[in-house]
Structure formats: structure tokens, C-alpha cells
Design brief:
Layout lengths: L1 H13 L1 H16 L2 H43 L5
Length: 81
């Protein structure tokens, strides 16, 4: 099985499509200026920070929702056991 996987991997790496993708990637990397690299890095950092904020809001929101429903249940008198 591992021999078949290795053979398939070697075939894909030798393929014309892989060579073309490699050339396209090299051209893109060569064409990027320092400003473009900075923009890419800044965008990546911004997305990561926004992801952390969204996850935090979801976590805190669920905690606040839980405390709200607990307060309502206490007022109505239908606490869960």
C-alpha cells in the first residue's frame, strides 16, 4: 500500500500540471513587492484577531444567555433539577 502511495506521489510530482503550478507560484512570489508581502501578513493577522474576537463573543454570549435564562427560570419558578 505504501509503495502504491509513493508511486502515485512521484507520478503527481513529475506531471506537467505540477510543473506548471510550480512555475506560476514562482512568478507570483517573484512579482510581490515588500508592500504586498506586508499587506498579506497584515491581512492574515487581522483575520486571526477577528476570529479570536468572534469566538470570544460566542463564548461570552452563551454564558450571558445562560445566566439570563437562569434568572428568568428563578422568577417563574421552573428551575431545572
Amino acid at each position: 500500500m505504501t509503495d502504491q502511495i509513493a508511486e502515485m506521489e512521484a507520478s503527481v510530482r513529475r506531471s506537467e500540471l505540477a510543473r506548471r503550478f510550480g512555475r506560476v507560484e514562482e512568478k507570483i512570489d517573484a512579482a510581490k513587492s515588500g508592500r504586498q508581502w506586508a499587506k498579506d501578513i497584515g491581512t492574515s493577522i487581522l483575520v486571526n484577531v477577528l476570529t479570536v474576537i468572534v469566538v470570544g463573543v460566542i463564548a461570552l454570549g452563551s454564558r450571558e444567555y445562560s445566566s439570563l435564562t437562569s434568572a428568568i427560570e428563578a422568577r417563574v419558578g421552573t428551575e431545572q433539577r
